[in-house]
Design goal:
single chain, 8-stranded mixed β-sheet, alpha+beta
Length: 169
């Protein structure tokens, strides 16, 4: 099965970057929420570029609409869904809150090193925030990534998570 089989053509496809420890946590099934102070708020699918000197692309994720809330609510959500540290989240999101982005599904591919991507696509860059891959300019990169074989995939239990979040006051 190829990554392209998972891509929904009606959903925006982004390129985002994450630190290696976050990529590992998603791959291991421990991270179901990505936190951001500002980000794309609608549901999306994304290829994830791992940052760092050994970075590259090895992960594809599908995310639901971001949950926008104040620091206290986001910290409660993080504790409930993935046992995150309440005080770390409060500190991160104070004073104005932010977004909890539900990661619905993940799939891994063989690592494509950043150096390979830069050699093959002369305008390839690791995003500071995100950029859209479903544009004419980025279509060759999206086509290449879509043709990668899936190594592993996992769907996170968001029906249960949403029920637990609904109980948070």
């Amino acid at each position: 099965m190829m990554i392209g089989d998972l891509i929904n053509p009606l959903m925006p496809t982004l390129m985002i970057s994450l630190h290696p420890e976050n990529v590992t946590a998603i791959k291991q099934g421990h991270k179901q929420i990505e936190y951001r102070k500002r980000f794309f708020k609608d549901a999306f699918q994304a290829f994830v570029c791992t940052t760092g000197k050994n970075g590259g692309i090895e992960l594809f994720i599908k995310c639901d609409t971001a949950i926008q809330a104040d620091a206290a609510k986001l910290a409660q959500i993080g504790m409930t869904v993935q046992q995150d540290d309440y005080h770390e989240l409060i500190d991160y999101f104070q004073p104005s809150g932010g977004l909890a982005i539900p990661i619905l599904r993940m799939a891994t591919i063989e690592m494509i090193p950043r150096t390979t991507l830069q050699a093959q696509f002369d305008r390839f860059s690791v995003p500071q925030g995100y950029y859209f891959l479903d544009t004419r300019e980025k279509m060759p990169l999206l086509s290449m990534l879509s043709a990668q074989e899936i190594q592993a995939q996992h769907t996170f239990p968001w029906a249960d998570n949403y029920a637990a979040i609904a109980a948070i006051k």
